[in-house]
Amino acid sequence: MSEKIVITGGTGFVGTHLILELLEQSDAELFCLVRAKNTSAEQRLHLQLAQVIQGSDYAPELINQVKKRCHAIEADLQGDITSLATSIPSGVSQFWHCAASLNYEERFAAEIYDINVEGTRKALALARALNVDCLNYVSTAYVAGRNTGVILESPMAKVQSSNVYENSKVKAEQLIYAEQDMKFRIFRPSIVIGHSRTYHAINFSGMYGFLRRLIQFKGMMARVQRGYLERESIRMNVDPDVPINLVPVDKVAKQAVAIARSDSSNTIFHLTNRTVPTVGEALEVLFSTVGLPPPKIVQDTTQYAWIDEKFNEKIEFYKSYLTGYKQFDRSASNAALGEHANTTRYAVTANNLNEYCGWYCAQLAQTRSQVPVSR
Amino acid sequence: MPNEIFVIGTGRCGSTLISNILNHHPDVLSLSEFFTFVTDLGTLIPQAFPAMQINGAQFWQIVSGVYAKQNIMLAHDIAIKEVLYPFKTGVRFNASTGVPAILQTTLPHLTPEYDALFDQIHTVITARGMATAEAHYHALFGWLAAHFGRSIWVERSGGSLRVIERLYQHFPNAKFLHIVRDGRDCALSMQRHNGFKMVLLVFQITEILGIDPYESDDRSWQDDLPDELISFLPESFSGKDFLAYDVPPSLYGHYWSGEIMAGLDVLDRIPAAQQLTLQYESILTDTRNTIEHMIQFVSPDSSTNADWCDAVMSSVKRPTAAWQTLDAREQSRLNDACEPGFAALTKRGIRW
User: CA spacing 20 to 30 A to A170: which of A19, A61, A370, A374?
Assistant: First the structure.
């Protein structure tokens, strides 16, 4: 009898890749808790997985495994999910909780906590009801908040979060630490970007959100004065020499599944990247992708003009990823992965970051083709 | 010589004064803020100049449209001060019904019988067949000029440098009277003007949502809107937040420079005989000579120019905006922001 696995967030960025990895790396039967939107939960799940297969380097035949082994169960983390225990066959070994809100604006705070914290509480209750062997939770490396230096793969006790999103993930992790009778693993990816070979992505927060805001700001300023931002560099008060930890989504999924299948007794794993660009290098690529000169790095914000202030306000959420030196310890991850821990395939450099950004800009250009002209 | 004239300039350059004094000239029909409202504050410029032929009824929809931005401003009592229609007391049209574009300022500027005139124009325009927008505009302005017994029409809309490309394209024989004013004073005055604040807010939201939120219900990218802009979506508009939203003069300084540079690019293509640039400050300091110069450009053959000059001299008043009242930091930022615009004007021999 094949292994049974339950997954939340299976239509999300990391969740889709995790499902595909689980299908590839095991013969498990997957029960995915999915919201129905305009289509049924099953249709939505299968369509999303088909899109990811097509956009990534999975074999096209994997879609047959999706249809055969991937079952959608209609569920909403903002509603009751504990009662779903009766709709899921017994004998579930692993529970993957990937569902999360990636919003960060204050106006979404209640929803963020509801999905990320209360949703985790409900996922834990369901996992207990299903009597699973292990709960795997996809968190973020940025539960580290404003901590700097070496960030260990250990529980976050006292931490100053940079925004409500980070804080919600800290609180969710704390719910999991408190579990006495259930084995758990917490996976902490850094800033997840597209597929390492195709650059394909389905979620456009994180780095893509920054890039989009840059495009929006450039458009707004072009309406104010055509060519202004091409002549005048935006000023930013960031740390250009610190690394910005970008990790391809396929690395996150492959390593999470490999770790879950290892015999590691550790509980917290950083799914971060070893070769990453510096903030200065990354910003130069991002700005260049949208046709702007690199930002002018200033030592303090008193050097900002109003336009700089406005731009920096719009990307405030990203500031915590652009300042403060963080070195993510990967001892537990590397030990679990053994010889597979390091591979150059996933290196993100100034050179290939350009490809990730270019891919997204091409996608975005299609959705922005109807932006009204200004004259 | 053509009897079609556009007064063009950046926002708050003093062109309203030109409209008001020209309105007293017996040969001139002064069309005030026509394109301001027909383009919904300059945010629907392409829609006001459709490329294909349209019939009279479709053209009437353009000029008499009840547009979202200008009317949400009426509804929230933050209307721009150029609106002359009594939208608070109007029985036929008011803040609740919305006021048609041509009735906001243009027709009340011409006659106290603006509602009746509106109906007359409706009859005339909707009877027209298929034609280009250019032909319809000529017909409308020509009919109005004849109706009021004037031989020349002068259209003036605040911030019309933004639309000059379209105007020149559709009225290639028109004359263009370009009013320029110290960008720092323009910027300060724009900062105090609700219309320009609305335009800058719409610029921001449009770029974030990828659509004009007043023309489309698509909110696919609404999560990208920062909290501070939510109050300016039509479905959640707050007049109080609008008044509290602060934009510094320097941003309007950048806007002024941008409008000057883009506008001069078009003016450079217009034959010299079809254009005249006047400095607003000259109207204040050398009033007689400047307005004589202007009326010679507008109506060179009129025998009533001297009498008109005598009559309107006293209408010329100094404005209140003075950029020197800003603090040193904002003055410096404003100087920097206006520098590209000043540089472009200096190349044309215009200095302050």
Answer: A19
